From TrEMBL:
Record protein name field: NADH-quinone oxidoreductase subunit K
Lineage of the organism: Bacteria, Pseudomonadati, Planctomycetota, Phycisphaerae, Phycisphaerales
Membrane-spanning intervals of the chain: 6-26, 33-50, 62-85
InterPro entries recorded: CPA3_antiporter_subunitC, NUOK/Mnh_C1-like
Predominant location category: membrane
Length: 103
């Protein structure tokens, strides 16, 4: 029988894979930013699941500190990505990346 940490870790991997698929398949910039945020949340969930190891009642504080730091970095990266998306929208009038052209 699987323990709770294993179930959370498996859920994190599944969510990460769906978000990666969304990041690759959609051309809309806001959807890409949302997919990146979901991927980050999946990594945070995975780290949270990995804090439960060893003794059943003890937790490892290092992954928890990494998650807290990661949340701050994710917020800053999201703000930066949204500002880049706004700049692209202002310049091109659309929220999609320009298509690559064959040379």
């Amino acid at each position: 029988m699987m323990d709770q940490a294993t179930i959370y870790a498996m859920a994190a991997v599944i969510v990460f894979c769906f978000a990666l698929w969304g990041l690759i398949s959609y051309a809309h910039l806001i959807r890409k930013i949302m997919a990146l945020n979901i991927m980050g949340s999946a990594v945070f969930l995975f780290f949270g699941a990995m804090t439960r190891r060893g003794e059943p009642e003890t937790t490892d504080p290092v992954p928890q500190a990494m998650v807290i730091t990661g949340i701050v970095v994710a917020v800053a990266a999201t703000a930066f990505a949204i500002s880049l998306a706004k700049a692209i929208h202002r310049r091109t009038g659309q929220l999609r990346l320009p298509e690559e052209r064959d040379a």
